[in-house]
Design goal:
There is one protein chain. The chain is an alpha/beta fold and 284 residues long. Helix content is 58%, strand content 8%. It has helices at 25-39, 67-76, 90-103, 109-123, 130-141, 145-153, 159-166, 172-182, 188-203, 207-220, 226-240, 250-262, 268-281; strands spanning 5-8, 12-13, 47-51, 61-65, 80-85. Strands 1-5-3-4-2 form a five-stranded mixed sheet, sandwiched between helices. The longest helix is centred in the C-terminal third of the chain and has 16 residues, at 188-203. The protein is elongated and about 90 Å long.
Length: 284
C-alpha cells in the first residue's frame, strides 16, 4: 500500500460516489469530533481517498473510507488529515468501502439494499442472466447469494418502513417476509400500501405473536386481510400453550417421584413431561 500522506481537508470532496455509508453519519461524526477534541487525531487511523474522478471538480480527492473521520476534521476546522491516496476504479473503491463498513456493522439495512441493488443491476442485463448476476453480486460483496437476495428484497419497501428497519423497530427478518408476501411489480403503489399495513400490524404484536407472523403471511397469502392473519397467529399461540391434564393413581405416585428423583427432578409436572418425552422418543 502507498505511504500515508498529510493532505489538506479542504481538498477532499464532502460528497462521495463510492463511499457506501449513506445513513447514520451525523451521529458518528459527533462522536468522532468529541474524541478528537479530547485526545487529538489518532495518526495511525489514516483515511483512504482516490484522485477525484471528475477532472472538472474543485476538489482533488474523493473519500473512499473514513468518511466520519474526514467530516469530523472538516467540522473542527483541522487543516490536514493523514490519508492513503490510491488510484482506485469505481468498483475497487466501492468494494473497499463496503468491506470496511460492513465488517464493522456500520451499514444500515437501507445502505445494504441500495448497494446490493446497484451491484446486481451492474451485472444483470449486461450479458449475464439474473442467476449469474446474483452470483457475481454475492462474490463482489463477499456474502452469500441468499444474503444478496435478502438485502435486495428490502429495496421494495416504502421509505417509512425502511426507516423502521434501520432504527431496529422492525426486524429485517419480518421486513423481508413482508416484501415477499406483498410485492407486486405491476402494482407498486398498492403493494407498498400493503407493506405499511403489515408492518404496522406486526409492530402491534407482542414478541410471542411476532414469531408466528411470518408463517401467517406465508400461509394466508398476499391478499389476506389483517383479520385473517390475526386469527392464524391466535391459533398458533393456542397450540403452543395447549395444556394436557393428567391423573396419577395414588399407588403409583411414589414410583413416579422416585423416577424423577433419579433424574434430578422434584416437580410432578416436570417429571411427567420428562417421562412422556422419554417414552415417545423410544424406538417402536
Amino acid at each position: 500500500m502507498a505511504a500515508v500522506e498529510q493532505i489538506k481537508v479542504s481538498q477532499i470532496d464532502p460528497n462521495s460516489s463510492v463511499n457506501v455509508r449513506r445513513q447514520g453519519i451525523d451521529l458518528n461524526v459527533d462522536v468522532v469530533k468529541s474524541s478528537i477534541q479530547a485526545h487529538g487525531y489518532w495518526p495511525e487511523m489514516a483515511i483512504v481517498v482516490r484522485p477525484h474522478p471528475d477532472s472538472a471538480s474543485q476538489y482533488a480527492y474523493e473519500h473512499v473510507t473514513g468518511q466520519c473521520r474526514f467530516k469530523a476534521c472538516m467540522e473542527l476546522g483541522l487543516v490536514e488529515i493523514p490519508a492513503f491516496i490510491l488510484d482506485l476504479s469505481d468498483n475497487d473503491a466501492i468494494q473497499r468501502s463496503w468491506t470496511e463498513n460492513e465488517s464493522r456493522g456500520d451499514l444500515t439495512s437501507s445502505d445494504k439494499a441500495y448497494w446490493t441493488e446497484r451491484i446486481f443491476k451492474q451485472y444483470n442485463g449486461s450479458g449475464y442472466t439474473a442467476a449469474e448476476a446474483l452470483n457475481l453480486a454475492a462474490e463482489f460483496l463477499g456474502v452469500t447469494v441468499q444474503t444478496v437476495q435478502r438485502y435486495y428484497s428490502l429495496v421494495a419497501l416504502p421509505e417509512d418502513v425502511k426507516q423502521m428497519v434501520d432504527q431496529g423497530i422492525l426486524s429485517q427478518q419480518n421486513a423481508v417476509a413482508i416484501v415477499r408476501n406483498t410485492f407486486d411489480g405491476g402494482r407498486i403503489e398498492q403493494s407498498q400500501d400493503r407493506m405499511k399495513e403489515r408492518a404496522n400490524w406486526i409492530l402491534g404484536l407482542n414478541q410471542d405473536s411476532r414469531s408466528h407472523a411470518i408463517s401467517a403471511m406465508e400461509e394466508k397469502g398476499h391478499n389476506a386481510p389483517i383479520e385473517d392473519l390475526e386469527s392464524h397467529v391466535k391459533e398458533k399461540l393456542q397450540e403452543a400453550s395447549r395444556v394436557v391434564q393428567f391423573a396419577i393413581p395414588g399407588e403409583l405416585h411414589g414410583r413416579l417421584m422416585e423416577w424423577g428423583k433419579e433424574r434430578g427432578l422434584d416437580n410432578e409436572t416436570t417429571i411427567v413431561s420428562h417421562m412422556i418425552s422419554d417414552v415417545l422418543r423410544r424406538p417402536r
